[in-house]
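Usage

Read records sequentially. Each one opens with the input sequence:
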Amino acid sequence: MGDFVIRVLVVVAAVCLLPAGPAFAAPDDGAEKLFTFKDARITESSGLAVSPTHEGIYYTHNDSAAAPTFYAVDGEGRTRATFQVRGAQARDWEAMAATKDPRTGRGVLWFADIGDNLDGAWPNVSVYKVMEPRTIADATLPAVRYRFRYADGARNAEGLMVHPKTGRLYVVSKEFAGSVYAAPKQLRTDRVNVLRKVASAPLMATDAAYAPDGSSYVVRTYFSATLFRPSGETIGRVPMPELEQAESIAFTADGRSLLVGSEGPRSPVYRVPLPAGSAPTPSPVKAEDTGKEETPVARADDGDGTGLTLGNVLIWLAAAAAAIGVITFLARRTR
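and closes with the structure output:
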């Protein structure tokens, strides 16, 4: 029943937000359909990443109730290879990220089993690290599992991003008042790693990604996408194409556009160019987690409305009231 209430709230809130939210991207905004997944097995594309070493290859995986499997897809939406992940579970895979090891040049894929619709159903959540295959052909790949818990209590999350320069991992929660959580700079396999809140995030975030050069990151919601500097300062909102259920986001390899996807059979992937001048020039400061020059995620909300503002509160109160009415009506009908 709890999950049903949340779903109703989200639907009603979407209706409430339409007049005030950013307009969906129209064709003259530059959004274009890149491809449609052709594989009938890809029914709930929840994570999306661009291969860091194989040109023209994109990775995706299904949502919950699926095997630990991911797919390599080309620019036409055709599956080029299917990979099984050994040593992994798939309770609720919600996101993925792709980076390149600066020492070896190998691609690294990260799969986030972080979905928790009951906000505490699991004692901990997991992220799996998989070395990118050298060749695009069906294979079974070993995984390294890292377990996590939140310092401030369990919660649902659907966003994963990894800083391309430092390799530090961040999880973005999916809540009315969302948050960005940083993992320890050194991950441990022999203990549960603690995720600590470092910034606020837009409400009901469904995915997140770092730019290839680390100069910005983006957080996707059901309604829009917001671009941030690593300091946490908002750069601006990026118009999004209308999707059935906006679930995934990633940067293109050149960092000039965003790729956005949706769940559902034969779901499309769109390429959305970033607005002119939206890519920031980083201002290096000493980072406590690496000892190198880096711009860390800020520890405070920028107050621009991407967190839970008064407006958000009023919108969600209105949505809650409407949802309660719907639920009450349904309850009476089913007595």
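Summary fields computed downstream for this record:
- The longest helix spans residues 310-333.
- The CA atoms of residues 64 and 92 lie 4 Å apart.
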